[in-house]
Amino acid sequence: MPNYNGVWSLSTQYQNAADWPKRIPVGLFGGGQISNFVNTIERVDISTAANATDFGDLTSLNVNPAAVGSATRAVWAGGRTGDANNDNIDFVTFSTAGNASDFGNLSVGRKTPAGCGSDTRGLIGGGLVSSTYQNVIDYITIASVGNAIDFGDLSVVRGDSGACSSATRGVWGGGQSSASDDEIDYVTIASTGNATDFGNLTVARYYVGGCASPLRGIFASGLATSAEDVIDYITIASTGNATDFGNLSSGIWGVGAASSHERGVFFGGSDNTVRNYIEFITIASTGNATDFGDAAVAKWLSSGCSNIHGGIT
Fold first, then answer.
1. What is the set of domains in the chain, with CATH numbers?
2. 115: Cβ–Cβ under 8 A, 6 or more apart, which residues?
3. C-alpha–C-alpha distance, residues 286 and 263, integer Å
4. In terms of pTM, does the model score above 0.90?
5. Which of 181, 189, 212, 231 is the most buried (most CB within 10 A)?
6. What is the 3-state secondary structure of the chain?
7. What would the pLDDT profile of 109-157 be if each residue is shown by its tens digit?
8. How confident is the model at residue 228 (pLDDT cuts 50, 70, 90)?
9. At 304, phi and psi to the nearest 5?
């Protein structure tokens, strides 16, 4: 029987001894903003609709960092922090509630990057240095603490984008950029190099939430001329423009996003009023989001990741 580290479940979904027990899909949402910056980490069990619960705290107050997860660790990198360098990387272990520990530093400290990855590697792309958007992509080996290493560059400079991944590809969509805010880029996670154009979102926007199953990538919410309720999807293994999936319950931006292989969860956000909404979708279908529960505190620009997402098979 495999030795899975993480949170355990005796799920009826897995009937073969070789596949069982499996981890409960856990989403963690770190940092964010109420009127002030916060360092709280909240937890949801993605397979069960319910309110979020307290998990612990990041090492500093942080807004909109990049978030990546392996089967065992959740990692947050960069963001708007009390550290003038904005290069901090924090991590926690999914199976143990508690405060984050220092992981290392980004190659370039920056605000508003977006993260994705596989069970082995985390990628942190884009962001903002002073008032200049960046195209840098860093990578980390999630199981080993240490500083991030340069991976390559996005096709355009951008920040405030959404990101998601399969086990082979990392994808960034939307964001404030030097070009249109509907750009989608991708890289091959196991290699290094510059990103390649993938296609375009259905609506150009930034402050996007991204998550994925192994097959589909999801980009939800955002800010264009107003707060958007749009949810888009892509087939990660191919390239092409995104397709309309459905809608959130209202126009909102700055949601955190995390997923299992089956569900995408969208956390918090703002429509000029900061919200405690949590909503979810079934990724394999299309349709509008459904109420999941509530965040412990209304906040926006929290960043989410999970222990079993599109990048983890």
1. 29-306 (2.120.10.80)
2. 65, 66, 67, 68, 75, 77, 122, 123, 124, 125, 163, 303, 305
3. 12
4. yes
5. 212
6. CCCCCCCEECCCCCCCHHHCCEECCEEEEEEEECCCEEEEEEEEECCCCCCCEEEEECCCCEECCEEEECCCEEEEECCEECCCCCCEEEEEECCCCCCCEEEEECCCCCECCEEEECCCEEEEEEEEECCEEEEEEEEEECCCCCCCEEEEECCCCEECCEEEECCCEEEEECCEECCCCCEEEEEECCCCCCCEEEEECCCCCECCEEEECCCEEEEECCECCCEEEEEEEEECCCCCCCEEEEEEEEEEECCEEEECCCEEEEECCECCCECCEEEEEECCCCCCCEEEEECCCCCECCEEEECCCCCCC
7. 999 999 999 999 999 999 999 889 999 999 999 999 999 999 999 999 9
8. very high
9. -115, 150
Tokens of 111: 């605000």
Cβ 171 vs Cβ 189: under 8 Å: no
